[in-house]
Amino acid sequence: MSITKYIEGAAEYLQQRGFENPEVGIILGTGLGKIIENVEIEAEVSYNHIPNFPTATVEFHKGKLIYGTLEGKKVIVMQGRFHVYEGYSLRDVTFPVRVMHLLGIKKLLVSNASGAINLNFKKGEIMLIDDHINLQGDSPLAFRGVEKMGERFVDMSAPYDVEMNKKLIQIASDENITLHKGVYASVVGPQLETRAEYRYLKIIGADAVGMSTVPEVIVANHLNLPVSAISVLTDECDPENLKPVNIADIIASAEKAEPAMITLFTELIKHL
């Protein structure tokens, strides 16, 4: 069966369960699930019930697709995302973006937890992704037949939507939220970086590093789907003073920064 048929099968299943005419898709990163509390939920489905959908395997990723109303807009929220480090291909990782697009979303918002390479950024703060570096060693567009779903040679000169990013910067100013702007590097993981790798990432121009987001953004661009993304900075990656990372601390830092991210996303959705 072709990937197109798989996408259509998943979308049809969700339509039958009330996922009708969504306007905005939201992908939530590690430790960033509380925006759900702001959604008037109308339907929710576990990933393992959706035909052809991958299943989240990381314990702090919930694994649900949620549909409802947020600030007057119909939204689909991915509570839990997929990663290459779980053993998925990039086609698996980005499958939900294609399904949400077929269901009708017009904008995509993405969040992630990441480490701060730029030492002017502190953990517990947030960064608007202005550009990215793909270090995952593959592309979600590198498969036979991709040209039937969109332009094979996708332009990535401005992968993040300029207008939505401008609005997010303005909202941050209005709400007195510290919002850095920078370059996000996406690596495979799941191991964290060595001191030498952090030095390398700084040299090549990364301000933050994580294990997600870039594949979804590439596919959003393939679909001509405007996308914005925010990194919640959960640790400071100083190779000269590197201490062992505690995953519980990373989750705690994500939760500390989460309210600012929720404010930015909800206010943006209100003005879309």
UniProtKB/TrEMBL annotation:
<comment type="pathway">
    <text>Purine metabolism; purine nucleoside salvage.</text>
</comment>
<protein>
    <recommendedName>
        <fullName>Purine nucleoside phosphorylase</fullName>
        <ecNumber>2.4.2.1</ecNumber>
    </recommendedName>
</protein>
<comment type="similarity">
    <text>Belongs to the PNP/MTAP phosphorylase family.</text>
</comment>
<dbReference type="InterPro" id="IPR035994">
    <property type="entry name" value="Nucleoside_phosphorylase_sf"/>
</dbReference>
<keyword id="KW-0328">Glycosyltransferase</keyword>
<dbReference type="GO" id="GO:0009116">
    <property type="term" value="P:nucleoside metabolic process"/>
</dbReference>
<dbReference type="InterPro" id="IPR011268">
    <property type="entry name" value="Purine_phosphorylase"/>
</dbReference>
<keyword id="KW-0808">Transferase</keyword>
<comment type="function">
    <text>The purine nucleoside phosphorylases catalyze the phosphorolytic breakdown of the N-glycosidic bond in the beta-(deoxy)ribonucleoside molecules, with the formation of the corresponding free purine bases and pentose-1-phosphate.</text>
</comment>
<dbReference type="GO" id="GO:0004731">
    <property type="term" value="F:purine-nucleoside phosphorylase activity"/>
</dbReference>
<dbReference type="GO" id="GO:0005737">
    <property type="term" value="C:cytoplasm"/>
</dbReference>
<dbReference type="InterPro" id="IPR000845">
    <property type="entry name" value="Nucleoside_phosphorylase_d"/>
</dbReference>
<feature type="domain" description="Nucleoside phosphorylase">
    <location>
        <begin position="24"/>
        <end position="270"/>
    </location>
</feature>
<dbReference type="Pfam" id="PF01048">
    <property type="entry name" value="PNP_UDP_1"/>
</dbReference>
<dbReference type="InterPro" id="IPR011270">
    <property type="entry name" value="Pur_Nuc_Pase_Ino/Guo-sp"/>
</dbReference>
